[in-house]
């Protein structure tokens, strides 16, 4: 077989066959990339998925947040989706041993930060545990500690309907490889506070964006997280005002 003929066959395969392979992929078997952005969902033209990667800062900041939880009036922006009135979630209990005994309290405290400003608008309902540990469009909203790449502390994936922008599913995967811990109301610079980071991730569930400028450094939705940080446990005025624009 000549090189020209071989090249032609390769190109023909890529042009005619591969699109059918991609389109045949089931939505529930497809995993979105672990990169910030909005992506189409194979086989579901009615859906898109938004990915948020919660990073560590390039340099370790001074841990003033460890002692001071300042308020901020900087209004957190919207992602473009909203949750329906009732939202059920599952928790994977396979977590680092450093937080396993306090996992239920950590999760409840994180949701409670959002329950108060969303009272009467969104009801968060715990449905029990799950062994699911990866993001997947499977009808279950999960919180799990698993594998993420690079410096991501946690990654949240939100599938939403393009017609009305209502959320269809949310999954949060926290990075198991980092040092995690929790001691309510106390900070420790030897680990990442699980409640602090999870509260931030749930802000994406309810439809709030990340911010990276200095004006938002005290907001729960500030896009970087550090060891010893606990200031994200409580919402700022700006975070709450951002919610009000989504859930008037």
Briefly say what this structure is:
The chain has 248 residues and is α/β, with parallel strands linked by helices.
Describe this structure in words.
- By secondary structure, the chain is of the alpha/beta class.
- The chain has a single domain, classed as Collagenase (Catalytic Domain) (3-Layer(aba) Sandwich), CATH 3.40.390.10.
- The chain has helices spanning 3-23, 97-100, 103-115, 194-205, 237-246; strands at residues 37-41, 44-55, 86-91, 123-129, 142-146, 152-161, 167-175, 180-181, 192-193.
- The chain has a seven-stranded mixed beta sheet with strand order 1-2-6-7-5-3-4, with helices on one face.
- α3 (103-115) packs across α4 (194-205).
- 38% of the residues are buried.
- Mean pLDDT is 88; it is low at 5-23 and 60-64.
Give descriptors for this structure.
alpha/beta; Collagenase (Catalytic Domain); 5 helices; 24% helix
Mean pLDDT: 88
Count of individual domains? 1
The tally of helices reads 5
* Low-pLDDT stretches: 5-23, 60-64
Annotated CATH architecture: 3-Layer(aba) Sandwich
Which series of helices and strands comes N to C? Answer: HEEEHHEEEEEEHH
What form results from the Cα inertia axes? globular
Count of DSSP strands: 9
* Level-1 CATH class name: Alpha Beta
First CA to last CA: what distance?
68 Å
CATH evolutionary superfamily: Collagenase (Catalytic Domain)
Main sheet summary: 7 strands, mixed
Strands of the widest sheet, in order across it, are 1-2-6-7-5-3-4
Oligomer: single chain
- How large a portion of the residues is in β-strands, by DSSP E? 15-25%
In CATH terms, what is the fold-level topology? Collagenase (Catalytic Domain)
What structural category do the secondary elements indicate? alpha/beta
Radius of gyration over alpha carbons? 20 Å
- Please estimate the helix content: 10-25%
């Amino acid at each position: 077989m000549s090189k020209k003929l071989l090249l032609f066959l390769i190109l023909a395969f890529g042009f005619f066959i591969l699109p059918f392979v991609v389109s045949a992929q089931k939505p529930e078997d497809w995993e979105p990339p672990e990169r910030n952005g909005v992506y189409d969902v194979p086989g579901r033209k009615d859906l898109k998925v938004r990915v948020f990667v919660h990073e560590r800062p390039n340099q370790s900041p001074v841990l003033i947040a460890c002692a001071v939880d300042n308020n901020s009036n900087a209004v957190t922006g919207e992602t473009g989706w909203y949750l329906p009135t009732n939202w059920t979630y599952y928790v994977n209990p396979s977590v680092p041993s450093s937080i396993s005994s306090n996992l239920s309290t950590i999760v409840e405290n994180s949701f409670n930060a959002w329950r108060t400003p969303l009272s009467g608008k969104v009801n968060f309902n715990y449905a029990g545990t799950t062994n699911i540990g990866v993001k997947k469009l499977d009808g279950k909203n999960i919180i799990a500690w698993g594998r993420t790449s690079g410096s991501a502390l946690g990654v949240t994936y939100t599938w939403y309907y393009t017609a009305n922008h209502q959320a269809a599913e949310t999954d949060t995967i926290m990075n198991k490889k980092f040092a995690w811990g929790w001691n309510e109301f106390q900070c420790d610079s030897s680990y990442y506070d699980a409640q602090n980071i999870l509260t931030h991730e749930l802000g994406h569930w309810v439809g709030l964006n990340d911010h990276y400028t200095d004006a938002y450094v005290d907001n729960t939705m500030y896009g970087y997280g550090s060891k010893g940080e606990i200031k994200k446990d409580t919402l700022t005025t700006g975070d709450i005002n951002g919610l009000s624009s989504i859930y008037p």
